Amino acid sequence: MTLAQAVLAGERLALARLLTQVENDSDAGRAALNELYPHTGRAHLIGITGAPGTGKSSLVNQVALHFRKGTASRAPQRVAVIAVDPSSPFTGGAVLGDRVRMKDLAGDQGVFIRSMASRGSLGGLAQATAGMTQVFDAAGFDVILIETVGAGQSEVDIARLAHTTLVVEAPGLGDDIQAIKAGILEIADILVINKSDRPGVENTERALKTMLDLAHPTQKIFKHHGQYMSVSVDVDHDAALWIPPIQRTVATEGKGLPELLDALEKHRAHLKATGDWERRERARLEAELETLIQETLMARFRTTVSAAQLDEALDKLYRRKLSPHETVAQLLK
Amino acid sequence: MTLAQAVLAGERLALARLLTQVENDSDAGRAALNELYPHTGRAHLIGITGAPGTGKSSLVNQVALHFRKGTASRAPQRVAVIAVDPSSPFTGGAVLGDRVRMKDLAGDQGVFIRSMASRGSLGGLAQATAGMTQVFDAAGFDVILIETVGAGQSEVDIARLAHTTLVVEAPGLGDDIQAIKAGILEIADILVINKSDRPGVENTERALKTMLDLAHPTQKIFKHHGQYMSVSVDVDHDAALWIPPIQRTVATEGKGLPELLDALEKHRAHLKATGDWERRERARLEAELETLIQETLMARFRTTVSAAQLDEALDKLYRRKLSPHETVAQLLK
Question: In angstroms, how far is the first alpha carbon of chain A from the final one?
Answer without folding.
Answer: 45
